[in-house]
Design brief:
Elements: H1 17-29, E1 61-73, E2 81-86, E3 95-98, E4 102-109, E5 118-120, E6 144-150, E7 155-160, H2 165-170, E8 175-180, E9 190-199, H3 214-220, E10 226-229, E11 236-239, E12 245-251, E13 258-261, E14 267-272, E15 275-283, E16 285-288, E17 293-298, E18 307-312, E19 328-335, E20 362-373, E21 376-381, E22 392-395, E23 399-406, E24 412-416, E25 422-424, E26 439-442, E27 447-453, E28 459-465, H4 468-472, E29 476-482
Parallel strand pairs: 1-4, 3-8, 9-12, 11-19, 20-23, 22-29
Antiparallel strand pairs: 1-2, 4-6, 5-7, 7-8, 9-10, 12-17, 13-16, 13-18, 14-15, 14-17, 18-19, 20-21, 23-27, 24-26, 24-28, 25-27, 28-29
Bound molecules: CU-O-CU linkage and copper (II) ion (CU).
Length: about 500
């Protein structure tokens, strides 16, 4: 074997895995020309996110600045929206690093109110989790805070505020964080990272009052009319028919569920919140409740030059949530004017996951409840809103089995900070195929069970409904994890 030819280094942000693979692909073809089956040039430019800039020369440390600030954006044609942004864009800068890398984020709050940054799904120390009043005090306007932690697991994660979450997130504060596993197969698919969200704007582009609809708005969970993919309305991805794509999707909407469907196409889901699943699952529709992620393979097929719509299909998450709601296009895949290529064999992404040992596990029972205080709707856990809740005790090394029962007329996507869990069925056997989760949908009148084992990261950890109007109305609690090294404090 001869040595691969020396190639000129690409600009730093491009030298991440994707481009390196393209270069390797050229070497493998041994022709130096473009791969004839490749995606059209600039195929993903309509959904490209601005990459975060790494200012640390150490390849294993990603160090960046991040500012939360108001920025005028044109989200509706010809209209100006004073959006709340990370670094001036929706979504915020796309952070991409490898598992085991250290991430240092010098954060500055230039918003007119306090905030924090929560790193959704990451198993990091409690002090870095962005839980106001627990991890850290709220970051006041004009103040700074440095987040500094090691990225422990591969997968797609995201970041968002944890103060007035429904309002701040709804105004545009969220971003994606992709943690690569350099050892995973190279040819899983041409990758798109898709941050799905929605926004509630007035006709003139102004931000809608986050309290619209009062109690009913709170109960329903406020959705915005403007559907966004990486901050764009109905963008078009150019594609080569037959060529496999890998979509890494996060639902960053504050209340909206995304059920996606494409006519005559299926989704092959290979992973979720915490990396690959035991084995892939194929389905005609893909459902992501707020906070959840999916890693899916899609092979667009059709006549050259035709367009495939990726549609939002109403998902029944309780009383009135599908009433009078048409399907909507989220984005489109436009097929290049070139013959369909033969799909290459799908590499193995199957992963061995060991069920947690439940011998001696502590049972924890929660009910998601609705209440009232001072004539206003509240929500809670076991009848108690977050501001009156007593933390659930836990010890480092302990395993718990949580049973979460929904007594309300709306679904609740239940999220636990800082730890992955394994979903269980009624007999407490793991639900197959297994995967690591941090957010699970608890349907109307339904019960969900999961097992969680606490590693050595003591501290206070939040759990809450990820319909953020519900969380803000009180559907939130704390886990008080004690013992271990105390490194989390
Ligand atoms: Cu996305 Cu408290 O979480
Ligand atoms: Cu809820």
């Amino acid at each position: 074997m001869s040595q691969p030819p020396v190639v000129a280094p690409a600009p730093a942000p491009l030298l991440r895995r994707g481009s390196a693979l393209v270069l390797l692909g050229l070497v493998a073809l041994g022709c130096g020309g473009p791969d004839p089956g490749a995606q059209p040039e600039g195929w993903d430019s309509a959904v490209a996110m601005r990459p975060a800039a790494d200012r640390n020369p150490d390849p294993r440390t990603f160090e960046m600045d991040l500012e939360a600030r108001i920025q005028d954006l044109e989200l509706l044609e010809g209209k100006t929206t004073p959006a709340w942004t990370y670094d001036g864009t929706i979504p915020g800068p796309f952070i991409r690093a490898s598992v085991g890398d250290r991430l240092v984020v010098h954060f500055r709050n230039t918003l007119p109110e306090p905030t924090t940054v929560h790193w959704h799904g990451l198993r990091i120390p409690a002090a870095m989790d962005g839980a106001p009043g627990h991890s850290q005090p709220e970051i006041q306007p004009g103040e700074t805070f440095t987040y500094d932690f090691v990225l422990p697991d591969a997968g797609l994660y995201w970041y968002h505020p944890h103060v007035h979450s429904a309002a701040q997130l709804g105004f545009g504060l969220y971003g994606a964080l992709l943690v690569d596993d350099p050892t995973e197969p190279a040819d899983i698919g041409d990758e798109l990272v898709l941050v799905l969200s929605d926004m509630a704007l007035k006709d003139d582009g102004a931000l809608q009052d986050p309290q619209t609809g009062l109690d009913f708005g709170t109960l329903f969970g406020r959705e915005g009319d403007l559907l966004l993919v990486n901050g764009k309305k109905n963008p078009i991805v150019e594609a080569r028919a037959g060529r496999r794509q890998r979509w890494r999707i996060v639902n960053a909407a504050k209340s909206r569920y995304f059920q996606l469907a494409m006519k005559e196409h299926t989704f092959t889901r290979i992973g979720g919140d915490g990396g690959f699943m035991e084995k892939p699952v194929e389905s005609a529709a893909l459902v992501l409740s707020p906070g959840e992620r999916a890693d899916v393979l899609v092979v667009p097929r059709g006549a050259p030059g035709s367009t495939i719509a990726v549609r939002w299909v109403p998902y029944d998450r309780g009383y009135g949530t599908t009433f009078n709601r048409p399907e909507e296009e989220v984005f489109r895949v436009h097929l290049a004017d070139a013959p369909e290529v033969t799909e290459t064999p799908r590499p193995k992404t199957e992963r061995t996951l060991t069920p947690l040992d439940l011998a001696g596990a502590t049972p924890i029972s929660l009910e998601l409840t609705q209440g009232e205080q001072d004539g206003k709707v509240t929500m809670g856990i076991n009848g108690v809103p977050s501001w009156e809740a007593v933390p659930i005790p836990a010890t480092v090394g302990e395993t718990q089995v949580w049973t979460v029962k929904n007594t309300m007329d709306f679904d609740h996507p239940f999220h636990l900070h800082g730890f992955f869990f394994q979903a269980l069925d009624e007999s407490l056997a793991p639900i197959r195929p297994m995967e690591w989760k941090d957010t699970v949908n608890v349907p109307v009148d339904g019960t969900r069970r999961f097992a969680v084992r606490y590693d050595d990261r003591p501290g206070m950890w939040m759990f809450h409904c990820h319909i953020l109007d519900h969380a803000d109305a009180g559907m939130m609690g704390m886990l008080d994890l004690q013992g271990g090294s105390g490194a989390g404090h």
